[in-house]
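Holo prediction. Input below; ligand is heme C.
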Amino acid sequence: MVRRYGALVAIVGGVLVAAWSIHASATRADDDKKAAQKDEDAEKKATPKKIAMKMFMRKKLESSQSVLEGLAVEDFELIAKGARQLKTTSAAAEFMVVHDPMYAQHADEFRRIVDKMEKAAKEKRLDGATLAYVDMTLSCVECHKYVRNVLIARQ
Ligand code: HEC
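Structure of the complex:
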């Protein structure tokens, strides 16, 4: 099982690297310019709070990927572990954010769903955990919509 998975990853990885190198040589000059501009833009706005928030969110993304892997291979321990990481990370990220009641509501909803996902994993209910994963994805998107449309617009 693990070996087959490894071979698949190697093949997909190989194809991606090949595609990337063709693309990269064609567009490198363009990308360099764009990257420089992006760095400048980011530097203007980057505050320690924002950097920390980004780190927490990257961590959330990683943990949610472990959950997806756990669901795909029916590894309940991996699902539960991802859920626990998501809970700690979102609790930490909470301190970073302005006190906004709607934001707090989104964060509560997220936690509630992650709890549900962890519970389903502990009880070895694959469908329940998968549904919770879908709910969680919606909750990521809803909170981000709110942040983009309301919080950032207000700044
Ligand atoms: C309660 C609100 C909330 C929830 C739920 C939430 N996020 Fe975020 N997320 C934010 C905020 C706030 C930012 C930072 C926006 C900004 O300042 O640009 C962010 C930014 C991000 C970023 C961009 C980081 C970067 O490098 O710029 C990623 C990736 C991300 N979140 C992933 C996730 C994932 C995956 C989930 C769900 C598993 C999730 N988030 C759930 C509030 C949330």
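The chain has a mean pLDDT of 81. That is the main takeaway for now.
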